[in-house]
Design goal:
Elements (H helix, E strand, L loop, with lengths): L13 H31 L1 E5 L3 H15 L3 E5 L7 H9 L8 E4 L2 H9 L3 E2 L21 E13 L8 H11 L5 E4 L4 H14 L1 H13 L3 E3 L2 H9 L5 E5 H9 L4 E5 L9 E9 L5 H11 L2 H9 L17 H10 L9 H16 L1
Parallel strand pairs: 1-2, 1-3, 6-7, 6-8
Antiparallel strand pairs: 3-10, 4-10, 5-8, 5-9, 5-10
Helix pairs in contact: 2-10, 3-4, 6-7, 6-13, 8-9
Length: 357
């Protein structure tokens, strides 16, 4: 016999059923509103692929986001595959682009994208303030805020007053076991190879490449790794960029630097470069970012940052740190890199062939 105190659950009356329906509809409405808000935000978001070091680029892009009210989503490249990884990704995405603006760390990769039809011309408000050799004649990309290729050396192993003489002698010695360089497949090291390929010819570069490896040259994953090897005393000297040198010196490491001079009396002054991706749905917002990055204000901000990047357009000398003013003198002798695209393509194909063996 059942317990008389236990009663079956009461069936929901009309009012309870009505409340459930109302709550369900409200829940659906909230979800729909959230999805709509997210979709609207996503529709306004500017997607930026960035091959510049995030430690420097992040602050600049967030400042743009704050000032413009345009949300920015950033995809960075890795140190080991600087610029080349994102360049190749943009080529693969050409027919269905996901990126709106590409901030590259060097201009030859940008020139390659322009040749492939990936970039959308944009003659922005600061286009003419940048010297002609640092911008595309057809306005498909524009350079700003450069770095120099430099020799970094350990001051306890190579005295600063004798650095130029000692490094030159070491390079001729046939023993490069205390010298570090980045792999030439990527970034500014690839630009360096392209310049040599153009000046010396393919055969001479290939022979030199083999000779330096037989001499014990140490190849590492990127310019930051070169800086670390020299700063730690694992190597006595190496090739890197000015921003990496300053990061080591600011950390109190015993390092010095010398600009790399080519045989034709030029330096390797390698700018950042920015471009709008063809097919973007945010052309107006993308143009605003290009204008922001190529402004005197942003060039000054990057010059005053820990990277000490070198303005390419006119800025007051007195507004620059003393170190950047000194670098500017060498940067004024920077080689025009725009004509190196054929050399870069041939050299890169050869280097990739070596890697695949």
């Amino acid at each position: 016999m059942s317990d008389p105190t236990v009663r079956p659950l009461a069936q929901p009356g009309p009012q309870r059923r009505f409340r459930k329906i109302i709550l369900g509809l409200l829940g659906i409405g909230v979800l729909a509103w959230l999805w709509s808000a997210w979709h609207a935000h996503a529709q306004k978001t500017l997607v930026v692929y960035c091959a510049h070091d995030s430690i420097h680029a992040e602050a600049v892009l967030r400042d743009f986001e704050k000032r413009s009210g345009i949300p920015v989503s950033i995809r960075y490249d890795t140190e080991a595959t600087k610029s080349l990884g994102l360049v190749e990704l943009l080529i693969r995405e050409k027919d269905a682009p996901r990126c709106d603006v590409f901030w590259n760390g060097e201009l030859l990769g940008m020139a390659a994208l322009a040749e492939r039809g990936v970039l959308q011309p944009y003659r922005g408000m600061h286009f003419d303030r940048i010297p002609a050799r640092y911008r595309d004649a057809d306005a498909r990309w524009i350079g700003f805020a450069a770095r120099l290729r430099v020799w970094i050396y350990h001051t306890a192993r190579i005295p600063p007053t004798e650095a130029a003489t000692i490094i030159s002698a070491r390079l001729r010695s046939g023993d490069l076991s205390r010298c570090a360089v980045a792999k030439p497949l990527f970034g500014t090291r690839l630009t360096e190879y392209a310049a040599l390929w153009d000046s010396w010819g393919a055969v001479a570069v290939q022979q030199w490449h083999e000779e330096t490896r037989r001499a014990g040259l140490r190849e590492v994953n990127g310019n930051a790794a070169v800086k670390d090897a020299v700063a730690a005393g694992v190597c006595d000297f190496g090739l890197t960029d000015t921003d990496d040198f300053f990061s080591a010196r600011d950390a109190g490491r015993p390092v010095g630097m010398l600009p790399v001079w080519l045989e034709d009396g030029t330096t390797l002054c390698i700018p950042n470069a920015v471009a709008i991706i063809r097919g973007t749905r945010h052309a107006e917002a993308a143009g605003k970012l290009v204008d922001f990055l190529t402004s005197a204000e942003t060039e000054l901000a990057l010059a005053r940052s820990s990277a000490r990047q070198i303005p390419l357009g006119p800025v007051p000398d007195e507004a620059l740190p003393a170190e950047v003013r000194e670098l500017r003198a060498s940067a004024q002798h920077g080689r025009d890199l725009r004509g190196l695209l054929p050399a870069r393509a041939a050299c890169l194909a050869w280097l990739k062939g070596l890697e695949s063996r």
